[in-house]
């Protein structure tokens, strides 16, 4: 399991007043149609911060899969993309100790106080990196968010490891700084 995620789970009782298992029981009694509805419920009803609420909801849905299992499943049949994913994680990990990686069924959210990036194996040959870069103009490479909708403001399509370059690292760093 990712160390930052495990730390978040370990800190959950102190920071939220309940353990992950206790939160899972609360969510099990409710019926939410969408992920965002459950996050909103935890934030508004229980005063849980967005990062914890998102992690609780994600892990309660994927109760049988560990975060590592979720990532492994995302890259089944797309093993050629794993090196790109791992290089992105190396950059993300270098941004600061407050970065949280939250694997979901089809993507990995990258969160500081707010989500600032999303890594998604979009096809067998491409990873889409979503970024939150408010007021940044789009370019040929730094495209509009496309299928990410309002989750991200921009999207970069990555088909080879050499596309994870200095320019991309700067965009990630900028998105990280905006997520304070």
Question: Can you tell me about this structure?
Answer:
By secondary structure, the chain is α+β, with helices and mostly antiparallel strands. The chain folds into two domains: 3-64; 70-178. It is 46% helix and 17% strand. It is built from seven helices and six strands; from the N terminus they run H-H-H-H-H-H-E-E-E-E-E-E-H. It has a six-stranded antiparallel β-sheet, with helices on both faces. The radius of gyration is 16 Å and the shape is globular. The two termini are 25 Å apart.
Class inferred from helices and paired strands: alpha+beta
Into how many domains do the coordinates divide?
A: 2
Biggest β-sheet: strands ordered side by side in the sheet: 1-2-3-4-6-5
Order of helices and strands: HHHHHHEEEEEEH
Sheet of most strands = 6 strands, antiparallel
Q: Give the CA-based shape.
A: globular
Q: What percentage of residues falls in helices of 4 or more residues?
A: 40-55%
Instruction: Give the radius of gyration.
Output: 16 Å
Count of strand segments:
6
Mean of residue pLDDT values: 90
Number of DSSP helical runs: 7
- Low-pLDDT parts are none
End-to-end span in angstroms?
25 Å
- Beta-strand residue percentage: 15-25%
């Amino acid at each position: 399991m990712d160390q930052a995620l495990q730390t978040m789970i370990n800190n959950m009782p102190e920071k939220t007043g309940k353990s992950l298992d206790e939160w899972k029981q609360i969510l099990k009694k409710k019926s939410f149609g969408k992920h965002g509805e459950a996050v909103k419920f935890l934030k508004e009803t229980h005063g849980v911060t967005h990062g914890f609420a998102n992690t609780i909801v994600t892990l309660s849905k994927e109760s049988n899969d560990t975060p590592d299992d979720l990532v492994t499943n995302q890259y089944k049949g797309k093993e050629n993309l794993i090196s790109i994913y791992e290089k992105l994680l190396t950059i993300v990990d270098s941004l600061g100790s407050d970065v949280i990686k939250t694997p979901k069924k089809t993507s990995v959210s990258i969160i500081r106080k707010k989500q600032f990036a999303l890594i998604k194996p979009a096809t067998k040959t491409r990873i889409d990196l979503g970024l939150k870069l408010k007021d940044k103009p789009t370019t040929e490479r730094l495209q509009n968010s496309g299928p990410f909708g309002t989750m991200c403001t921009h999207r970069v399509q990555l088909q080879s490891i050499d596309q994870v370059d200095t320019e991309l690292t700067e965009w990630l760093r900028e998105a990280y700084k905006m997520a304070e």
